[in-house]
Amino acid sequence: MSTFPIAGKSQAQCKRLSSSALRLIVMDLQFARRFSQALLFAFAMLCVTTVSSAQDQAPPPSSSTLTLHVGTQIVLLDVTVIDKNNQPVNNLKPEDFTILEDKVPQRLRSFEPPSEHHMPAADMGKLIVKSSADLKNIGHAPITILIMDESNSAFSDMAYSRYCLNKYLDAQPAIMPQPTILMVADDTHFTQIHDYTQDREAIRDSLKHYFPSLPSKMMRSNGGANAAERASNTLGALYQIAKASAGVPGRKTIIWVGAGFPNFDVLQMSAPVADAMQSAMKRMTQTLLESHVTLFTIDPTVNLTNTEPMETPEDLENAEDQSDGAPYDDQIKFSTLATATGGTALFSRNDIDKEVSESIQQGSNYYTISYRPTDTNPDVNLYRRIRIVMKNPNFTAITRDGYYPRVSDSPNPFAIPNMDPQEQQAQLKMDLTNAAMSEMAFDGLTVIAARKDSANFKLTVPLKDLQWKSVGSDTQQAEVSVMVVAFSGKNKPLGHFGTELVARTAGDPVQHPDSLAPFLVPYQIPANTTRLRFVVRDAVSGKIGTVEISNP
Q: Which is nearest to 462 in space by CA: 533, 397, 510?
């Protein structure tokens, strides 16, 4: 076992830290200049390069060519089918679908009907889900994530959106059909207003008592570094959701109510900045898809009209032929993430409650189908366009419009290719810090925590959750990184500590999936601590689990 102090602080040096100070752990300029070209936080780095006069503090990115290799890939699609009355069609068979990738027919490898994604039966009047801890009981059923975007929307628009969300909740049964979480993204925080629940009244009461904030960054400026910072915050929120919900096997439907970040004209940018921002958006798209996330965006801005629909195959082909169908070649738009993940981008102040309801219904009734692409082109920057043709011309299939292929067969879908050790360490610290400061429960790993003695805590993780590698003739080893943060009664961080731990087991862990791997974490609790939050990250898969202890 080896330990490392996060951000170069030993446990004895842990002092009272603000939330922003903890986040600064990952802000290393030399690393960021390079890492931003491959990771979604390119927007944050754009802020740095825009406002910093210290251009000479870090060398420009290397001009040497990166060699990326496309891994063996199975493309997984969530497909909603609707009729001419916009009603879901849930009784179809595999032969009713024809998949086209770049206009070439593909062979279906698997097929799941909507019936396999329904919530399990519950006793009359009983909730299956009251919190994140209950999500393990819903199988492959979908979940809903409602997000109010206060960073990119006028205060008046968000007031109207809140009214419409209340109207939507009024129309729901007392026990909502899908577990739902309510989040708010503002200028400085991504806040959980209410944890996952099916209790309509609990969600509505939380919405009623939440006091909205003003979009100060948008009020100051709608462009330049301010816009880039808002884009970074928005993508960071989506990335956090993808990581936090990685353990839920079903579809995650995000309903983003707000304008999203401003549009960026790629053609007006310098080549390095354009490449960085395009790479960030491609990475974000892949991250959402890998996590089974579908994004629906509802822009409540006054005087905007609904997007013109694609009503015929010819409409779609004409749209695809522009910019070769690649979503981020000419402009970077937040709404493009919706269609890229199989959702819908809506632009209207009218009937927001109806749009939320229809988006959730679309996210609830879906087929899951897969295929192995026949195209073996090794160019990972070439966007593969997807279209599904229905046997019945009166039906319309809704799914994502394409994908960028994965660059490797790594078990970590969030991994960035060709990272050097410094970059890997920075991503590790970023993942741990984001999860530690989040209010969401991360369920990529199932973690149980208990106090062993006055100086140590025992964490356990099921063997099946971890990635194991052979280190001997009959020995398997798993490695994790752990971060613990102590919080005061006012939810202020008092101190933090990080460590890398190893678990070993004899024989094949697959034969004992329910056995637990123990990890011992040494930690002296600071004075006035009322809550400890533990973050565990698998070193190979990148999956993260969190657990908290109150009044330790």
A: 510
Q: Give every strand in the sheet of 516-522, ordered side by side.
A: 448-453, 456-462, 516-522
Q: Which three-class secondary structure string do you get for 165-217?
A: HHHHHHCCCCEEEEEEEEEEECCCCEEEEEEEEEEHHHHHHHHHHCCCCCCHH
Report how far residue 27's alpha carbon sits from residue 19's, in angstroms, rounded to the nearest whole number: 14
- The span from the CA of 70 to the CA of 74, in Å, is 12
> Using one digit for the tens of pLDDT, what is the confidence trace for 471-487?
877 889 999 999 999 99
Structure-token pair, residue 392: 């019945």
> Count of alpha carbons within 13 Å of 548, Cβ hemisphere only?
20
Structure tokens at 67: 């060699």
Helix, strand, coil distribution of the chain in percent, nearest 5: 30, 30, 40
Distance CA(24)–CA(311), nearest Å, equals 48
d(CA 225, CA 393): 48
Those residues whose C-beta lies under 8 Å from the C-beta of residue 323, and which sit 6 or more positions away, are 329, 330
Q: What is the pTM for the complete model shown?
A: 0.75
pLDDT band at 348 (very low <50, low <70, confident <90, very high): low
Is residue 7 pLDDT above 70, yes or no?
no
The token duo for 65 is 């060519």
CB atoms within 10 A of CB 84: 9
* DSSP-H helix ranges across 63-188: 155-170
d(CA 539, CA 537): 6
What number of other Cβ atoms are within 10 A of residue 392's Cβ? 11
